[in-house]
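User: Can you predict the 3D structure for this chain?
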Amino acid sequence: MNNKDLIYFLKVAELKHLGYASQNLNLTQPALSKSIARLEKLCQTRLFKRLGRGLELTEAGRLLYQRGLVLQNGFDETLRQIAEMGAGLSGVVRLGSAGSATQFLLPAVCREMQLLAPNIKLEIQIGMNDVLYGMLGRNELDFILGPIVKGDKPVITVPVTEDHVVVAASRNHPLAGKEATAAQLSRCGWILPAKSVAMRKWLDRYFFDNHCPALDVRIEISSLAAAPELIAESGLLSFISENSLSEEVFASRLVRVKNDDVIMARSFGITYLAENTLSPAAQRVIEVIQDYKNL
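Assistant: Here is the predicted structure, written as structure tokens:
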């Protein structure tokens, strides 16, 4: 069925007059008559009957009108959704987020996305960078929001902000808020991510280079950013994002242990595979993330 023929039929059925419909459609009356004739030939039955100077739908015509409205509305909605996808206003975006990003960056980004493009669905996977980079390499994510590190595959990175990772402890820890040497820190128990995570590698290397014993890691956890209460109640030292530490959920429970040498500076931003082409929806999300300081 030709979609134009259906549109013309619906307009004639609405106005119940061939002349009025042709004027409304900016179409000659003979051309409109041919369109209706094509439909009737396709349906193998009459769709209109004469009623005075106007037209009236036959029983078959009423059925086509009812179903035609549904079809046309569905077609129009499909075109609208496709146009929104092309403009980056709808679609699904698979976002991998470091735990710290869920505390200080993602809330504002998600709020802004609901205002600008509520039809974009975000599928967010929260994890440590080693897990997220594995998922990115398997094309299970569109991009990662978190610390920028080198992966096994060529990637494109978009820096967003700077971050520092610092030693932190519960407020009642003996070293809480105090200056502490590397030797003092190495004698404490720790709660840290796995050895494969970049921040853990940096910390282990620091103590090794300063001739300290290996850290006494008593709890290994996949996401420190998700466990401020656990860190506080464990009585252990940890190594967390300074951005996260400034958030109320952390600041109310944890404080920094001061040692200006044990600070890991890192660039925080967006990473995606160089071989991949981002969808318009993913590009829209990235634009919002890049502007996060103004959110």
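The domain at 163-265 is CATH 3.40.190.10 (D-Maltodextrin-Binding Protein; domain 2). The chain is about 45% helix and 25% strand.
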